Amino acid sequence: MHTNRVDAGTNHVLSKDERDRNMDVYEVKPISAPPNLRVCVPGSKSITNRALLLAAMTEGMTILRGVQFSEDSLHFLTALQDLGFQISVDQQNGTVLVRGYGGRIPRTKATIYAGSAGTAARFLTAFVAMSPGWYRMNASEQMKKRPMRELFVALEEMGARFNWLGDPYSFPMEVQGMGQRHGEYRIRLNIDRSSQFLSALLMTAPLALESLVVELTGKRSAKSYVHMTEQMMRQFGHPGVQKYGEDCYQVKRKPYQAQEYMVEPDVSAACYFYAAAAVTGGTAVVQNMSKDSLQGDMKFLEVLEKMGCTLQWIPGGHQREELQLVGPDKGALHGIDVTMSDFSDQVLTLAAIAPYADSPVTIRGVAHIRRQESDRLKVLITELGRMGIRCEQLEDGVIIHPGQPHAARIQTYQDHRVAMSFALTGLRAEGIEIADPLCCRKTFADYFEVFEKGIYQ
Is 114 exposed, middle or buried (0-12, 13-18, 19+ CB in 10 A)? Predict the structure, then answer.
């Protein structure tokens, strides 16, 4: 099969306009009238990277459509190619063909690089650890600081061996995989710092273990991404995960099935445009949204409803319904007290529009976002403070008080969600600039191009 090599280290996924502009700073223009947005966003990163892994574990050819070609997904694709998988990529049409080998990794010795992609780092670590090979793994400096220890410890308990090439329980390292094991394995796992630890084990355990029982410890109850993992395992032909109560999971050795699979639009990306309509009193439709979405960030749209927006499915093209949000008159949002542990990728989105609410916005249950691409709680407090907005830090969240933001250059800390979120604040404030806007290529390479075309049309 012809294979197109992808390279996560290049900028070929960026739009030509963005490359030509070579933006160091993006100047947000305040709106002159409520926008009527109709946009198309990339496929879901979370679904794309799960689908890539599941496709690699099938027997035969899988066609993935609607794939997101972000920096994170390109790292995942590159790593699979370095492991010997035959992959054909058509970025223009959003398709990827993956040849699976029934759970076997073609190369029993390889070096792979996960970049800053948490899904790639965690899912691929579990993948190679379940296989009878020897692998060297590395990641970006940013990823080296993100949580991994709980996953490494669990894999060690099951039989994988690690040789740490830097700090213990961190990248870089060498992995000696465990290969096929008989009998039932039982482990205890804490997912307070990342539910991806559990998703990684559930998806890859059927390759190596007759049965794996995972008992969760800790306090985190947010499992929307674990539910996504469970549903996608079934979509790829596995009989699914058996649950005993809320905190005990069992998965057994069963094969995955190759197929044609459609990746949903990225709800995390869609939320920025729905929030733009909310804060400006405009309307927004993001194309191809699904009523049966697997993504937890759909809960953010319910938050916008409670803040005064109207959300409804309306007739669209091709006999499909489309999800429309209408913002309140003049963007007059209401304050809210909300626990966001189950859709924490939208904390920065809510924080960016919170100053325009008529009373404080309180966000709870998100202590874990201190250890993501940046310390997102510290960042949102710092950057809102830079615009003159008062915040109170809580043990697991923040209270944001209403106020009119003043001009400021927002620092983005190499965190894509900081760049994309705080562009929303500038829709109703003069002089808001976003430093290093192209850090958003991690998940949405042409975000600011879509932002401009959608909002200022």
Answer: buried
Is residue 59 within 8 Å of 34, Cβ to Cβ?
no
Closest CA to 33 of 278, 327, 281, 333: 281
Q: Which phi and psi angles does 262 have, rounded to 5°? A: -100, 125
Query: CA-CA-CA-CA torsion for 178, 183, 189, 191, nearest 10 degrees?
Result: 80
Q: Which is nearest to 250 in space by CA: 223, 214, 224, 206?
A: 214
Query: Which residues are registered as beta bridge partners of 9?
Result: none
**Nearest alpha-carbon partner for 423 in 415, 414, 432, 436:** 432
User: Predicted confidence band at 246 (pLDDT cuts at 50, 70, 90)?
Assistant: confident
**DSSP secondary-structure letter at 224?**
H
Distances (CA, A) of 221 to 119, 226, 371, 440: 20, 11, 17, 29
Q: 327-364, pLDDT tens digit by residue?
A: 999 999 999 999 999 999 999 999 999 999 999 999 99
Domains along the chain with CATH numbers = 16-43+267-455 (3.65.10.10), 45-254 (3.65.10.10)
Could you list the active site residues? 345
